[in-house]
Amino acid sequence: MFVALIAFLFVAAFLYQVGMATLEGKPRSFLDSLAWAAETLSTTGYGADSKWTHPAMVALVIFVQFVGVFLVFLIIPIVLLPFLAARFEQRVPRVADEHLANHVIVFRYGPAVESLVQRLDAAGVRTLVVETDEEQARRVIDAKQAVVYSPSEEDALDVARIHKARAVVANGRDEENAALILRARQMGFRGVIYAFVEDPAHRKPMELAGATAAYTPRHIVAAALAAHASDRLSPRLPGLEHAAGLMRREIRVAADSPLAGKTLEEAQLGAIVVGRWWRSHLETRCTRDMRIEPGAILELVGDEAALARAAQRAKARFLNQEGPFIIAGFGEVGRKVHELLTDVGEEVRVIERHEGPGVDIAGDVLDSSVLERAGVRRTRGLILALDSDDSTLFATVIARDAAPDVPVIARVNHGRNLENIHRAGADYALSISDVSGEMLSSRLLGKTTRARDEHRRVVRLSGAHFAGRAVHDLGFGEAGCSLLAVERDGTVRLMDDPSVPFDAEDVLWVCGTAEGIRKMSAATSS
């Protein structure tokens, strides 16, 4: 190509020299003619020569001009730039390091494995991503992650040193994963193989193909979102219904609330604070020095009068306990959330861009008027099941402005976006990356999945061991528990004065996590 370009340059210069001497009567040296040819081909100008009279010369000039434009706009982008990119761009590895061993092979990078790779790296377990897309492989390199590129799926395991690997995680399309798993087993790999599946119906066939286990991370996220939304799916305080006269309610602490920034001791709410929701985290250790963050949701337990006083002190109204849930987005996650909620009898309204079966409001959730039509202010919660994290972020901002007191529950793809979505106003956000990462890293590292603090219950404890001692002396908050009330002479009542000591015949109604209740139960039996 370059030889032909140089040859054309010299031929054009020679023709120009001859034409100027014979047709225009203006002789030029070969160097002048060569300069003209170079200027014309590169489209930079003509110097002293800019006008010709003979038709043949005009035709020659036009021809060379078009060749120059062709070179600049076609040849250079198509030939020169790719050549330079291939010459100087970092080469993607085509085979794994020969010393790599006891590693985890991750087939195809994506949101479902982002957190997993980070967790394994933090635990000192090496991971190797196998990519069949070169551009994606380069993005993995940019993320400082070990990767090999295999243009052929058939060779993907050969270049990844599978005979030295400890495990394989298949994150491609279902058909790609099945083929990869079958190939791995045919090659004699006996380690664990975990597969992510897009269609839940493919879980069993994937296991028949040789997968140790198959997971549907989107459905797991959907189940977690639905459980957080609905008390029917996941009762918040099971056992509270047996404590006569006690109720559970929630309030959001606005930025201008008298409680914002105060400690529980300073707030003097009257009702019992059993939890504080703040950016997807439930704080169950509700000690006197726990600070009330603006925007946090406080879980309160008390009788009707105590709850009313607490709401008045906070200058807030209770979050809705009646009404529908709104689901924005009716893809795989949205449909599963809808199915889970309707199965337990919850009322649900679906917002989706286009009309279709199961869609109640056709429109864009990023349009505040669509939320108004859906009755967002009267809903028990807005569940964002959108495919794009950017859309989820913007929808959170719009929803928080339209309905400040309505809980916003969000599905997120990438764990790195959780912080921004919380800043936008989401009360509870869960990423596919974090869910699958925690689940698989626990399996691969031989650990148990951590218990979540929101799994609490209400129990009755004997007060005999605490006789003569007051609430503040017992360390309920430090143990992750809250003393709700005391049953004395058959009557359940709040402990209005925490300095009043218990009687030996008292029965204590306590709310807490399994671990917290275990500690307090051990104290009563010691």
Give the arrangement of secondary structure elements.
Elements: H1 2-22, H2 30-41, H3 55-88, E1 104-107, H4 111-122, E2 127-131, H5 134-142, E3 147-149, E4 167-170, H6 174-186, E5 192-196, H7 203-209, E6 213-215, H8 217-229, E7 247-252, H9 264-267, E8 272-278, E9 281-283, E10 297-302, H10 304-314, E11 325-328, H11 332-343, E12 348-352, E13 361-362, H12 368-373, E14 381-384, H13 389-402, E15 408-412, H14 418-424, E16 428-431, H15 432-445, E17 456-462, E18 481-488, E19 491-493, E20 507-513, H16 514-525
Helix pairs in contact: 1-2, 1-3, 4-15, 8-11
Arrangement of strands in the largest sheet: 3-2-1-4-5-6
The outline comes out as elongated
Q: Could you tell me how far the N terminus lies from the C terminus, measured between alpha carbons in angstroms?
A: 90 Å
Biggest sheet, open or closed, and with what strands and sense?
A: 6 strands, parallel
The proportion of strand residues reads 15-25%
Folded structure, characterized:
By secondary structure, this protein is of the alpha/beta class. Helices cover 38% and strands 18% of the residues. α8 (217-229) packs across α11. The termini are far apart. 39% of the residues are buried. The mean pLDDT is 86.
Task: Kindly list the characteristics that best describe this protein.
elongated; single chain
In short, what is this structure?
With 526 residues, the chain is of the alpha/beta class. Helix content is 38%, strand content 18%.
